[in-house]
Queue: 2 jobs
Job 1
Amino acid sequence: MKKLIVMMMLVLGTFFSSHAQKTPTAEELAKKNVDELQKRLTLSPTQKSIAYNYIFSMYKEQLLLFKKQQAGTYKEEDETKIYKLQNETNANIKAVLKPEQIVEFNKLIEERLSGVDPTKKKKKKKGEEEEKVVGIEGLKSGNN
């Protein structure tokens, strides 16, 4: 009986640990990113399609580099390659946006880089405004 219980625990533990560590696919990441762009920038169908293609290509390459990192064959040049891909993708997306969309796109990029999530609202005390602390200083002071 004890062996059966231990065996069931091992099977369930293996199942849940493998399920929790699933890496998202390039398609899932690109769709999520384009959906956010659509929501914030109100993209036309053509803009949405072009942005999806650029973002999908970027994530596909990034996931290959991620697998390379997991295999232990990751080099410093690969990190530079990731940043270069991101910058190229952002430039390509900006090329298909209207001027007012570019302004909002730049805000979105700035929020991502600073770690600010506009969908999360911080609680404020009555009559006070809470100061946003981002980056390393936010981690040091414990204001998460």
Job 2
Amino acid sequence: MQAMQQQRQSAAPGALAAFARFVLCGGGVGVASSFAVAGLSSWMPWALANALITVVSTLLATELHARFTFGAGGRATWRQHGQSAGSAAAAYGVTCVAMFALQRFVEAPGAVVEQVVYLSASALAGVARFAVLRLVVFARNRSEGAATARPVCAAEGHVLTPAGAAGFCRAA
């Protein structure tokens, strides 16, 4: 079991692949969230609807990012959920500011304009979240996996056992 997790961790995707997966997972959750916020805002204040949907979508997206986007090898930890929630809170602030600015400067924006503004603000915040998630939240998993890797003797191309790692590489 532990070997499978280490194998998944060592197979973490590169930045471009991770960003593509982030866009797929986060974007899919984001688009669904925008419709959910629009629907809920007819029953409650927009900021409250956005807050509720942000909580639910953050939990879902963090799990998807842990399992799929960043190759963490399993479910997200409570620490990762907490850190992800911090970046989501910042994204929530960005979307709120964008929507409040829209309401202030456009007397009666239509649903399409609201969706464009909301999704644009979400995309901007999403790029910043990607950086935070990749470099901070899920970076520890990759460094822990790398720290447990066994050294390879480059000249001979074989893996050294822990007992032989100290001095059996003739190329050194």
